[in-house]
Amino acid sequence: MSTSEGRAAGRGDRARYTQLLDHAGRTTVGLCAVPGRAGARPWGSGVLIAPGWVLTCAHVLAASDGRRRDTGPDGVFGVTFGGRVVPARLAYDLSRPDPDAGSAARADLALVRLLDPETEHPCAWLSDQPATLLEDAYIFRGHDRPGAGTEGDGAASGAGGASGDGRASGGAAAGRRGERAVCDPGDVRGPRDGRTVPEPGDGPGGTQGAGEGHGAPTGPHAPTGPRAPITPVDPFIAVRFGARDARGLQFGSDVRVTPGASGGPLLDCDRGEVVGIVKGRHQQDHVGLAVPVTALRGLGPEHLVAGAEDLGPDPYHALMSLHDRWHWAGQGLGSGVGPTWFDAQHAIMAGRGRLWGVQERLQALDLLARLPAPRDPLVVEAAVGEVLERGDRPGAWSLRTWRDGHGALYQGSDPYTELRAFVHYLRIVAQLTADEVRDVPGDEAAGVREQAARLAEFVQAKAVVLQPQDRRRIGPVRRRPRSVLVEFEPLFYDEGGQELFNWSVSEGYGQGQWLRVDVQESAGGVPFEQAREQVLRRLGGRLLRADGDAGPGARVRLEVAVPEGHWNTAAGQWEVAASTRRTARLRPVGPGRAVFLRDQGRREQVDPAWLRRWQGLAAARELHALRIPPRPGTDARRGSAEAIWRLLETAGDGALPALCHTVADGFGRDAVGVALDTGFPAGLWPAHGHGEERDCDAGCEEFHRGVRELLQGSGGVARLPELVRQLRAKAAEAAEEGTHWARDLVLLYDDPEDPIPPLFTDRPQVSPR
User: Fold this and answer.
1) What span, in angstroms and rounded, lies between the C-alpha atoms of 727 and 455?
2) Once rounded to an integer, what is the mean pLDDT over residues 421-435?
3) From the CB of residue 185, how many other CB atoms can be counted at a distance below 10 Å?
4) pLDDT at residue 438, rounded to an integer
5) With contact defined as beta carbons under 8 Å apart, do 539 and 574 qualify?
6) Dihedral sign, CA of 175, 178, 179, 180?
7) Model pTM greater than 0.85?
8) Would you place residue 41 in the very low, low, confident or very high pLDDT band (cuts 50, 70, 90)?
9) Phi/psi zone of residue 126: left (φ > 0), alpha (ψ -120 to 50 degrees), beta?
10) What is the pLDDT of residue 554?
């Protein structure tokens, strides 16, 4: 290719960047003294990265002698963009030493917060991956020279194209000249760390960073010296080369770096991302230096400036979540915004044959932003290592959040391999997140489970184009089981009047999602005792497999759905095989795992009274036992059924029915039926309660006293299964005086937010496999 042809191609490529450069220009800001102060001098630049947040260099906010800038009350200063100056203050300073970090390197970065939360502004796109080589990049500054604001003055507030010789041309920004509020050009001093050098004529004692000085022009014939007149400057400049080493991002340019650019963004046009924040000029080789935006991963609570409003316990995760969610929201239908940063990226990337394009990245990062931060950064490293098949070797850079892990997957591989890697990674994240909250009560945990399910659906949609062997290897998101459900389905009575049953075993994953793993279905069915024996012969192995799938040391719950007349089933005393050995010993399940009954008559359709009672129990400050019949000495045979209805219907939110009668028949069976009909989701009784032939005795008093003590300080209905398990364990070991009454304790625990499935249905089940 001839030189002229190469230049023409370069100009053609840059034409595609016009929209991107425009967005970068509008998100670049200037930092100056408090708004309204006469003769305010600009300090440097910054870039808007999330609603209300500006990223800049920490040294921009310090004077040349290291002292703080001249700010207003409470440290307020000005941020200029879009033709206005808005008040702001320093919130986080990453250059501050961390007492716990020893001599670890500190990043020359700072976060500035706009004081008015209603300020609307665009946001730049920060890269989620480390920058390596820069082939077509630009740096931006965030303020105009004095007097800007008239057509033809040569100042531009936004970004435009670039000429073939590498100098910035006003381009698309020409029509918006003078938009920014004006601050006098000033000197931005860098820290005396040996990486930036003083330049003669750049102010008294100044230490010049990249482009810092008195409004020096960018043209090759501009006058020089301390008294050089202020002339028009362009808002951005082309980077001639770029690379990364231990000092950070290095870059050179074809003309002198624009004054006031310290703290401004370094834009990689090929990727359409801000990859660095301009810092200064290196002492030896005179190349420009920029701090990689990935250095933000070091942001922690210790960097918060005294008196500033914080971002919570994990500020980096919170900040990047705001960033990613803002960009996704901008693509919403009816949002009323014009072309977005995503639109500019899409125009650049179009035709590259990527299977994981900017639209997939945009949605994936939005879904990841809605998840909690990983409990440990090593979890992110492990997930990336599994996807890239690099074993336990750590990556070349630290990973803090799920977003960082996403950025580590761009390996320059072919489009199909890249797609497979992202699908695999997101599947792991969805599973890990769901596992973390699978048994956690409350609305917050329920919201996390919902967001993990949304991510899992996204994974399923993107995995359909993978080859069969890759779909099998990766697999759809599999939620670890939280429970095993045994369900007995009554069929009819045989000629002798005996009730017959079919049965099934399912694994449960919460929110009504079940996978049937064993079933006994026959036209005639079998008696209940025979059905139970069939279940017990297989249940031990099934529980052990579910425990293994649930994770190291896990014990899934055993839920047993029984029909009316079998509420006295002592499932906690069932004995199952303790291992998969053919001659394995039998052990009771109740002391080792949570075991409870469910009402087989309640199905997918949730009765409003049932849901209302459950929500009342969940919200109650404390639980208390509701004794049925209500007082000792009541003759159950002469008791009023209407009185039981009134008692249960008018019970408070924290009430939990407790019966010492047998619930197999008679009064006890009727009382449980009324409790279920009035919406009660939980109750307690002994498997072998007394019948109607005798009144309550001392054993009944011991039972009710024990139930009252169990519920005191229980921590809510969600903890009941585990509390009952602990009580059963004590009773089985006789480890505590007075617990023998709990050996055959039955807990009814029927969560309407996790309803049992139909036993036999033609509809497909929700399967996590």
Assistant:
1) 39
2) 93
3) 23
4) 74
5) yes
6) positive
7) no
8) confident
9) beta
10) 87
Long-range contact pairs involving 292-295 (C-beta distance under 8 Å, separation at least 24): 292/130, 292/131, 292/244, 292/248, 292/249, 293/55, 293/126, 293/127, 294/127, 294/129, 294/130, 294/131, 294/397, 294/404, 294/407, 295/94, 295/107, 295/109, 295/248
769 vs 264, 403, 766, CA distance in Å?
48, 26, 9
For residue 449, give every residue at least 6 positions away whose Cβ sits within 8 Å of its Cβ, in sequence order, or none: 434, 437, 438, 510, 511
Summarize pLDDT for 373-394 with one digit per residue, the tens.
Answer: 998 888 898 899 889 887 555 5
Chain position carrying tokens 């919570």: 312
Residue 10 has a pLDDT of 42
Please determine, for residue 726, whether its predicted confidence score (pLDDT) is greater than 90: yes
Tokens for 270, please give them. Answer: 């090929």
Q: Of 614, 615, 588, 616, which is closest to residue 599 (Cα–Cα)?
A: 614
CB atoms within 10 A of CB 758: 15
Three-class secondary structure of residue 251 per DSSP:
strand
Q: Report yes or no: 24 and 168 within 8 Å, Cβ to Cβ.
A: no
- Straight-line distance from the first to the last Cα atom of the chain, in angstroms, rounded to the nearest whole number: 55
* Rounded-to-integer distance, Cα 79 and Cα 77, Å: 7
Strands 483-493 and 557-562: parallel
Question: By CB neighbour count within 10 A (0-12 exposed, 13-18 middle, 19+ buried), where does 223 fall?
Answer: exposed
Range with lowest mean pLDDT among 148-162, 444-458, 578-592: 148-162
Q: What is the pLDDT of residue 759?
A: 59
CA 535 to chain centroid: 40
H helices of 290-412, in order, are 315-329, 341-349, 358-369, 377-388, 402-407
